[in-house]
Fold each of these.
Amino acid sequence: MEPHGAHGTAGASPPSGSAVAHGVTSATADGSLAAHSNAEFVDLQTHTTASDGALRPSLVVEAARGAELVAIAITDHDTVDGLAEATEAGEALGVRIVPGVELSTHFDGDELHLLGLHLSDLASMRDALAELREGRVERALRIVDTLNRSGMPVTMESVLREAADGAVGRPHVARAMVAGGWVRDFREAFDKWLGWGRAAYMPKAPFDVADGIALVHRAGGLAVWAHPGDLATPARVARLAEVGLDGVEVLHPSHPPYLSQKLFETVEKAGLLPSGGSDWHGTLEGARRLGGQLVPRAWLDRQDARVQRARVARQAAPAEG
């Protein structure tokens, strides 16, 4: 997870970003990757204060309306606690909310972020996530202890204060470090202390991707590989499809145009679903802008159809026992 600051928060900012410059997407009849045209757009990865975002869920929805998005997915890390507020705001503002979550899983020894989209059984997901959130607290405690032993007197209380009621993570530690005056900004916190390979970096406890996919499916959702970069080779995508992967996040701020095109072709050949999102955390800093990836509504329509087919199949299946 990359650092995201709490500074420069945005309200209803107009969409801008890589997809506009790249000219890579449009809502063609079949949802294919094509040149930009007048169309309706969605954003299928956003974060709120329920985890490490800078804005409350209702404010993220307000920003989505200002960006003229017809739908957004709320995909907070290891929690679905922001969905009720977001859904209420979406109903009032005319923005569809796709219930989601982002999970940190492991595949081939590396971390793989997995989006669960279109969740319908939030109770079962919430119960399963409780254990994962406990692991986040334990990880934060180890990070704080390491910082303390390195001479930085940041406290766990200050970290939890930054997290409020959200799922605690490295960005909250970074905020506490900035607030205490021990680092200048988020970038310094991650570059010197919290980033991979740095003194206070702590890996998450392993959670196999197959288990993550099964968890998403039990909650009625689709499992999507988030911001895979060039790791989503045809061979890896095929292996993950065998254990139930439904789609891949093709459009993401970290993906240059050539890679998005390559990922789209890989996903189509594998019979999976394309997805895309800004990974917006409510800030004006950096390349991430709400709606900036111009994800076509046609991709959401394809996901909806897959969800409906899966639900019909489950209803038609004979009861166990």
Note: Confidence is low (pLDDT under 50) at residues 1-29.
Amino acid sequence: MTEIEIQAAKAEAFRAMHRGPKILLLPNAWDVASARVFEDAGISAIATTSAGIAFTLGYPDGEKISRNEMLAVVARIAAAVKVPVTADVEAAYGNRPEDAAETARRVIEAGAVGLNLEDGTGDPQHPLTELTLQLEKIAAMRETGAAMRVPIVLNARTDVYLRMLGWQNVGMTRLYAGWRHLGTQERIACSLRDCGTRNRLDGWFGT
């Protein structure tokens, strides 16, 4: 098998882990040493932590680190372990679908097979990326994976609950839109604490 075929197979294996009978645990690595510890402990896949990587390099969280520096660490981690690696790429390091596509390309080139895309902006006046733009970014990332022949596992995250914005219906709409219209494989309602909302989401997605 070629390297790209091996990476594509690893992506499919990682996707299957999300649908398996066991709960998928994704410990967050911030460097090669932590990733190797997780792999040696028997973890089946590893996620990177954008905050952890930023902190170890002297940056605060929130896209203060450059895409180049972030993905350089992702590449080292992916090269050091045999299990699938999924990369936390914050909000994709840009406000355009083209930026998201470039980030997805770089994630795949780094050897990762999944990525996490956030919709938080860091702007208190406009805390969430406009939904249409977010869907365009998701579409651009999926198209990049298809063009590179690596079916990257895209995790769409909404920060409605993490920021405690109180917009329950907004959060559910954003999660549903990403799944229904663009086929995002996974959804995260980060820091969702309300059992009623969680149960409604479980019913929608059948999870």
Note: Residues 187-192 have pLDDT under 50 and may be disordered.
Amino acid sequence: MEVIVVFFKPSGTKTEGMDWVEKYRPASLSDITGNGTAIRQVIAWARDWHAGVSPLLLYGKPGTGKTSTAHALAHDMGWEPIEFNASDQRTGPVLEHIAGASATTTSLTGNDDGEWAPRRKLIIFDEADNLHGSADRGGAKAIIGIIKEAKQPVMLIANDIYGMDKEIKTQCDMVQFRALTARSVAPRLRYICSKEGVTCSDGAVQVIAESAGGDLRAAVNMLYAAAAGMDHLDEDMVSSSQKDERSTIFDLISALFQRTRDQDLLRKSYELSDTPDTIVQWVQANIDHLDDLPSIAAADAYLAESDLFIGRTLRRQYYTMWRYATAIMLIGTASVADGRGLHARINSPGRWRRMATAKQQKGTRNSVFKKVGESYHIPGGALREGLMTPVSYLIEADPAWYASDLRLDTGELNYFIHDKVVATEVVKELVRQEREAGKIKKQKIKMVKGKNPEPAPVLSKEDASAPAVISDSNPAPASDEKPKDKKAGGKQATLFGGF
């Protein structure tokens, strides 16, 4: 037997070269910075957990403590954490093999009495909103299956809740982690400075805490970059290590309605990866936030002038004119807004929404043509040319039957009956009936498997040559009349000729 000896470095030794984010990652829930309400929800879920309890979905901006909370919870509860993130291969087969087995089995660990005791596992799916590409093919479906069958606690972590698979979200209880305030981040930075022996001024700590934008991970990384090789840190020394503050399209649209200098508006537009032909669509989608029609008309005039320069740029391939298009649309719109502020949600370009709706409608139309054509053997051309109207009348008369027969979803049924409420109720009822039928089928299978069939009797050679007799479970009383003898040497002409 091979013996492996492992030497551990004493815990008091300073770990050189380790990333400060990992080095000072909270080991216990009591060390987590901010989000007290979310932490209490997590603790309550863990204390009351039993098989059948829904998983937790922790969501919020990066650097708010979601992953640290999951691992700290496992530490505090004595659970074994098993984590899957975007760096792992998360295809369906891999998740079913590893995570599926972990979610349905229990570990054994030694207790203080020297006995083996069961130990729970915490299955952690980090970056659950990032299941894309061939590396994660089938991952969402596998996660749903693991959630339904899990006998161990499961926790999912996501930055973008809207990027999550809808069916996964419906299976989970959601807990939101909010961006941290600079007041919450600053004490943690001071603690790290004291542990690392770095004297950091209050001004430097405040600059880093505010620049991080509620992201504690970014704040620690900024501190690490600024303090590299330093024993003392001042406010002037942290400017080069601040978080990348490149503007987003949302920052630019907000600045349009504030009293922002013209130079700052242009700088924000240059920091964007979007081109002027995209920016003008965002501005157009939000000028409705202006209070009155004359202001909207004036802003539209500036956008129209800007659009002329965009068209000339594309026709002549002379991209220097883009700067004129940008200046006209931004400075002109800002002069109309006159710092009145933006008090509503920023809208995305309406053209994008219409294109997405049209694409969805086209997909629904192609899907119903295919289902109706294949089920009722109708050519696609005939459906398009006029048969869809009588088919729609038939489906409107009995939507439940046709939805079941054609396996229509809510959008497809609504395509025929033009009533989303009714379509939703019909499909929901069909799903409920299918689930009940599935449960009954499973019960019947269990009942059949539970019965022990009697062993078949061993037949003699003479009995084996005789025809089989199928009897009822309640056979009729034997008759006194003797059966007629068969003719000697007679042959069986058909399957039932022997009876």
Note: The chain has four domains: 20-177, 182-241, 262-348, 357-433.
